[in-house]
Amino acid sequence: MTDVAASAASPAAAPVGADAAPRRIAVLAGGVGGARFALGLREAAPDADVAIVANVGDDVWLAGVKVCPDLDSLLYALAGVGDTERGWGRAGESERVAAELTAYGVGWPWFTLGDLDLGTHLARTAMLRDGATLTEATARLSARWPLGARLLPVTDDEVPTHVVTDEGVLHFEEWWVRTRAQLPAHRFVQHGVERARITAEARAAIADADVVLVAPSNPVVSIGTILGVPGVRDALATTAAPVVGVSPIIGGRAVRGMAAACLAAIDVAPDALAVGLHHGARSAGGVLDGWLVADEDADAVPALEAAGIRAAAAPLWLTPGGPAAQVARDALALAARIR
Ligand code: GDP
Ligand code: CA
């Protein structure tokens, strides 16, 4: 880690050593970026109790089943059964059922539900129909594999992200997958969020954590959606743990994805400094104590520090089995300097 800020920090403010191995880690995460980071974290902190507080704004009822894209990306990645080439869904997938659904005109033809993936959605839907909460259903789905982390939907309430466009209001997944985020988004609306609550489990995970990490996930429709759920900002404001985020933007580009289109809708520039300042310093009513930026963005460190956010620069490319674990170690090292 290029510790640009270290020269300014007194030794007393930078405790490392025994403290450097947190026992309980809470992570705020979306789907693919969240999953890649979670894999790295599991490798970097194999003995920690990791709770992943996941976005549910992408969830959608489709062909009679409840689909949770971000929870499923996390589940499949941690279980080692995800399609790493496509970046979503199950490995070795087939689409016989999807072809039948399309023939009946049911569902979205551009949103393929693979057969194995449908098994997950059917199982989840059966559990929900039997009265389970999404948290309980997720725990039961997770029990099938040794994930090395607990998956916690941020809320059990439905808060679908709607996108306001010139062609009307679309569900987030329709805007993202069918229009490839090409249709300009004027606004994102978390439908029903005013009636939603953070779950007791997610709240406890944040309150009891030694470190809270914000994964390099979409800052608007993954992290922003999590932060919009009533109770989340309060949990972050009151936890004794340092809150450290990892920038999803490298060198002014939203790597692997269309996050720039989301940032444009909220008038935030697609750069690491702007996104860090958008989340804001916890000491000034925001959510971050620390923000890890990419080496390419090292020149953002002084401005972040001036805004009350402890910052450092490091390589931030998330490649499973290598750099992702180092990114997690660097995020934990930054947190150790804050604790
Ligand atoms: P989604 O829910 O599947 O869209 O995934 P997330 O919200 O968890 O993450 C998507 C974001 O991850 C993208 O918009 C990128 O900004 C970020 N991302 C993807 N790959 C990388 C990477 O290798 N390094 C970093 N730092 N960020 C990444
Ligand atoms: Ca997502």
UniProtKB/TrEMBL annotation:
Q: Which Pfam families match?
A: CofD
The membrane spanning regions, by residue number, are none
Q: Does the keyword Nuclease apply?
A: no
Q: Name one GO molecular function term.
A: transferase activity
Q: Does the keyword Ribosomal protein apply?
A: no
Which InterPro entries does the protein's record reference? CofD, CofD-like_dom_sf, FbiA/CofD
What keyword terms does UniProt attach to this protein? Magnesium, Transferase
Q: Where is the signal peptide?
A: none
Q: Which HAMAP family match?
A: CofD
Name of the featured protein: 2-phospho-L-lactate transferase
Organism for this UniProt entry: Agrococcus terreus
